[in-house]
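Researcher: I'm comparing several assemblies side by side, and this is the next one on my list. It has 404 residues spread over four chains. Same procedure as the others: predict the full complex and return the structure.
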Amino acid sequence: MEPTGAGRRGRRPGDSGTRAAILDAARARFAGEGFRGATVRAIAGDAGVDPALVMHYFGTKQALFVAAMEFPLDPAQVVPHLVGPGIDGLGERLVRFLIGVIDELGEANPMLGLVRSAVSHPDAARMMREFLGEAILDRVAAAIEADRPRLRADLCASQIVGILVARQILALPELAAADRELLIGVYGATIQRYLTAPLGPS
Amino acid sequence: MEPTGAGRRGRRPGDSGTRAAILDAARARFAGEGFRGATVRAIAGDAGVDPALVMHYFGTKQALFVAAMEFPLDPAQVVPHLVGPGIDGLGERLVRFLIGVIDELGEANPMLGLVRSAVSHPDAARMMREFLGEAILDRVAAAIEADRPRLRADLCASQIVGILVARQILALPELAAADRELLIGVYGATIQRYLTAPLGPS
DNA sequence: CACTGATCTCAACGTCTGTTGAAAACGAGT
DNA sequence: ACTCGTTTTCAACAGACGTTGAGATCAGTG
């Protein structure tokens, strides 16, 4: 986390990658502590850089957050790829992909930052609602042949967010320790039900 | 939120209820903005009181949080009452009760405060994990006759937390607007499945 | 080599935070 | 009426925060 010689002033050669280092540090801090919890000073410290440089590049903390939360995967590509093979098994494919991403990205997962921030920062909540809605849920809804597709997509989102919070943030013990394939089976069936089963009461 | 005459110094008669007013204000602020977001000064302001008085009563912000988050319903009474009638329909009873409490308490729901705080405050996360575990999940697990009862309870918790976050905090549009009985039916079936269905992959 | 423009640090600002110590106002017991 | 203990406000602290403006240092261009 010290991409350049420390202490010395002035410019170091070319594109020193400092901007990218700041973004990496920001992603990690926002993911771990949310928008309010992450401080510009801590991010700058992680990147081995003066806080003022962060402002110079991004202007405000808000803008830094937006820049850092740019999703590493493009939903416009991923979602069609998952939805493509048809409704059959879509639940399992979604959950398998999600848990794969969660386990691979670990603590640096930008989705964690989004959730952590959304939960106590209304602006971030709106941001996440819009991102979830336009980038993911509407696309999934478009592929659902059953009634009330958007409600079904919201139901799926509620279970997915629940997985994220209960497993990664609250770290409920047996859930965190459970076998991946088992979780994929159980949650996949739930999502599949939300996508296709009749919605009538009881 | 101005329980006593403002501005004047010194003691007002007997037990003025100021302590309770502080706790009410704290509950509302913590529920709405989480531990970090809620400030002692704002809480004191809502209660029509000097910030120093809050410290005098509770010592630290942490202690105030703990005091404010005392659960209004005693799980030792509620859970047995829900579990009593047996496993059949337990999923629906749990969800019906939960959604009832959510809608009734609204924004002042202490569970929202717990979630909002847990998500970006590790101490609160541990607190919520322990509360969920000892007060609720273990009790539910004790009533489950299937295999791996605690994992099943964790699965239920993941969907319940998901409902809370997606519906109350993110406010996904169709989910927030959906008919109560419909949600109870859909989610009740999910919880029931987590409680009783075989857990084998796929 | 001088100029330019980007990169980067320094020092400070104003504001907000949790917290503290002292004193003021008051009810109640004697 | 005097004291005692509780309740409450006041004024200030030290630290952290986001942000700013000025200036130092360097790569590349002419």
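Model: For your comparison table: Chain B touches chain A through 54 residues (CB under 8 Å).
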